[in-house]
């Protein structure tokens, strides 16, 4: 059996000059933003699937 290296995901830093190239009007400024997305995974020694999510969120 071969060893598996841990998964490392690089997140780039935002580039303010690139972000400033486009601006948009705020469509509904009084509307709260809710981001309910979840990350599920199955890695060696670490599993988080729907059953764990449901147990955590009730």
Task: Describe the structure in your own words.
The structure is a single chain. This protein is an alpha+beta fold. It has 2 helices and 2 strands. The protein has helices at about 15-20, 50-55; strands at about 40-45, 45-50. It starts with 15 loop residues before the first helix and ends with a helix. The model has no long low-confidence stretch (mean pLDDT about 85).
List the helices and strands and how they pair.
Blueprint lengths: L15 H4 L21 E3 L2 E3 L1 H8 L1
Antiparallel strand pairs: 1-2
Large-scale geometry: flat
Strand proportion = 5-15%
Number of strands: 2
In which range does the helix fraction lie?
Answer: 10-25%
Q: What Rg do the Cα atoms give?
A: 19 Å
Give me the secondary-structure category: alpha+beta
Number of helices: 2
| Sequence of secondary-structure elements | HEEH
The poorly predicted ranges are none
Report how far the terminal alpha carbons are from each other: 38 Å
Sheet of most strands: 2 strands, antiparallel
**Mean pLDDT across all amino acids:** 87
Enumerate the strands of the largest sheet in spatial order, edge to edge or round the barrel. Answer: 1-2
Describe this protein with a few key phrases:
58 residues; 2 helices; single chain; flat
Summarize the structure.
Helix content is 21%, strand content 10%.
């Amino acid at each position: 059996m071969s060893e598996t290296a841990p998964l490392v995901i690089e997140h780039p830093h935002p580039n303010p000059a690139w972000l400033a190239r486009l601006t948009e009007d705020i469509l509904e400024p009084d509307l709260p933003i809710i981001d309910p997305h979840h990350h599920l995974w199955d890695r060696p020694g670490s599993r988080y699937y729907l059953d764990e999510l449901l147990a955590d969120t009730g």
